[in-house]
Amino acid sequence: MQETSSGGLVVDLSTGVPRAAVICRLNRAGRAEWCLPKGHLEGEETLEEAAVREIEEETGIRGEIVETLGAIDYWFSADGRRIHKVVHLFLLKAVGGSLTVENDPDAEAVDVEWVPFTDLDTRLAFPNERRAATAATLRLGELA
């Protein structure tokens, strides 16, 4: 089975310290994992539209896409099926909103925080998301 999701790093530069809105989800074992906001496409959405919507739903922050950060893919098992998931990630500039998980329709995000880019490598649970954050760090100048 194939799944496609979209999301990414929404960045705030207003404090002088680049920071990204990241969410906390509970994994299947009930442990907290900090990760990038992302989710499935709905209807005829483009990857970009889904990223903007998912990030706003899960973090409360409206973002404007700056550029793509590429895609990550992985395999996992659920309900006795092997699933190949591809997640398209984007770099977004925060343009409004305030941090909240209250608008997450699936209630997957249990917490949200602004995390300085310098702390993303230790905060994000997944190596592929940490690599995307490192790539985004190199592009922060394009957000100014």
TrEMBL record:
Molecular function terms, GO-annotated: hydrolase activity
CDD domains hit by this protein: NUDIX_Ap6A_hydrolase
Keyword terms of this UniProt record: Hydrolase
Annotated Pfam families: NUDIX (PF00293)
Hydrolase is among the record's keywords: yes
All residue ranges annotated as the Nudix hydrolase domain in the record: 1-137
Family membership: Belongs to the Nudix hydrolase family.
PANTHER family, per the entry: ADP-RIBOSE PYROPHOSPHATASE (PTHR43736), DIHYDRONEOPTERIN TRIPHOSPHATE DIPHOSPHATASE (PTHR43736:SF1)
Identification of the protein by name: ADP-ribose pyrophosphatase YjhB (NUDIX family)
Organism: Kineococcus rhizosphaerae
Upper classification of the organism: Bacteria, Bacillati, Actinomycetota, Actinomycetes, Kineosporiales
